[in-house]
What we know:
Elements: E1 8-12, H1 18-30, H2 43-61, E2 66-72, E3 75-85, E4 88-96, H3 105-120, E5 124-130, H4 134-142, E6 146-150, E7 154-160
Parallel strand pairs: 4-5
Antiparallel strand pairs: 1-2, 2-3, 3-4, 5-7, 6-7
Amino acid sequence: MTDLRRLLKVEPLGRSQHLLFNLLEFRFFASSERGKALFFGNPRVLMPLITIPYILAAEIVYFRGRHFWVKMGMQKVGVLVLSARHGAVYVDTLAVSPSYRRLGIGLRMLRWIEGVCRQMGEEWLEIATLKTNVPALRLYMGFGFCVFAEKKRSVILRKKVTIQ
């Protein structure tokens, strides 16, 4: 069997691709944990009312972040949004397509982000997730993240990056 992770490429998002990016991001998160990875509840019921405001909010919130596609050949299998905040690289978004989960793509994305963090000379890497998103928590904790702060429904995780 081919190692799919070797076929992955991380590419910056083109200027005209934001709408497609936001739609894919929404779809990836809506498919996570039976819709529980979205902060507003059941996507099937709320989808028509929430999709457009969600996409607009994502554009506003992540405006300054760097957006990336994670591709396998021509297929988009993941999305990333990174930003620099308070001496750390912050992962605003990390999502893998439901069809490609549990293949090591998320781990590969985290390794790539850690490399970016080193190149920038930042010593901290931060990411937030919902407390109910157990697969994401398992991935992040397995990669060396520790709980930095807790909120009512989410946690912020932090990892020290050794600069070589």
